[in-house]
Amino acid sequence: MDLFFFLLFAFIAVACAVSVVLQRHPISCALSLVGTMAALAVLYLLLGAEFIAMVQVIVYAGAIMVLFVFVIMLLNAGAEDRRGSSWVARIAGLPALAVLLGILGYLMLTFYPMIGPKASLVHFGDFTGGGAKEIGTALFTEYLLPFEVTSILILIAILGAIVLARKEID
Q1: Which range is most confident: 64-68, 75-79, 133-137, 152-156?
Q2: pTM above 0.85?
């Protein structure tokens, strides 16, 4: 059953990601990106990383996407104009993609021979490091300095945005 859900939500994530690239209207792209983030959150849940899945939903699918939609609405971005693609891209695109996938498949089977239909590297539910306790312990012990540096950089960015906004008002 885990394999079924994995394949289902992996397909949804890939389909929404392709939709992000192919959509012409920015709001549709943002909604497709929300679908991708939600599917990734379900994949994190399947792997046993509950905290990471909830952060994915709250931070990325929630806050960041609301910010994207506000920026899109602020810029009043319309649908993208269609432009003709070059004849080289039309002729060589699909064969180049087939060659790239073939090379990647060959390299994967050469360097990782255990990957195949009989081998399974991921066992769903075996990962236990995705809880709030484990994340908090790692964040405030091993990764304390990068965490604090990141918070200082975010504070500097907020102050810079305030200074730039204040100059535009004057």
Answers
A1: 152-156
A2: no
Q: Please state the three-class secondary structure of 15-70 as a single string.
A: HHHHHHHHCCCHHHHHHHHHHHHHHHHHHHHHHCCHHHHHHHHHHHHHHHHHHHHH
**Which class for 20: exposed (0-12), middle (13-18), buried (19 or more C-beta within 10 A)?**
middle
Ramachandran region, residue 5 (left: φ > 0; alpha: ψ -120 to 50; beta: rest): alpha
Task: Characterize 64-94 residue by residue with b for buried, 16 or more Cβ atoms within 10 angstroms of its Cβ, and e for exposed.
Answer: ebeebeeeeeeeeeeeeeeeeeeeeeeeeee
pLDDT tens, residue by residue, 129-139: 767 888 888 88
Cα 90 to Cα 115: distance, rounded to the nearest angstrom: 34
Copy the structure tokens of residue 22. 């192919």
Question: Domain 1-80 class?
Answer: mainly alpha
- Residue with token string 């484990």: 134
Residue type, 122: V
Burial of residue 159 (number of CB atoms within 10 Å: 0-12, 13-18, 19+): exposed
